[in-house]
Design a protein that fits this description.
mainly beta
């Protein structure tokens, strides 16, 4: 199998799009650990233009060991991640928490 480099996923043309953002909601109705993340430079800070409830769900990347032990990040924590869909920026994946950079309430 060869990777389709013209697709949005795994694309050399679109690049691997990293992001940093702040957790604004963590009440995932599916209980999967998804969070709503306001991503710096992608989502406006103006909540009347883009309310927290309209942000896309960011999916956690679980570790390959002990993957059943996971806790969603706290409100206000800063997260680093990438977009699974490249520059479309609609499918965020959370990779980890940046410790000590929380700006909101925890």
């Amino acid at each position: 199998y060869q990777c389709d480099w013209s697709s949005d996923v795994c694309s050399s043309d679109l690049g691997f799009v990293w992001w940093v953002g702040e957790i604004v909601k963590r009440d995932d109705p599916l209980g999967l650990g998804r969070c709503r993340v306001r991503i710096f430079g992608v989502h406006t800070d103006n909540k009347s233009l883009l309310p927290d409830d309209e942000l896309p769900w960011a999916v956690p990347m679980y570790p390959i060991n002990n993957s059943k032990k996971f806790e969603a990040p706290k409100i206000g924590e800063w997260i680093v991640g990438f977009f699974m869909d490249g520059q479309s920026c609609q499918f965020p994946i959370m990779m980890g928490v940046l410790p000590g950079l929380q700006q909101g309430n925890s």
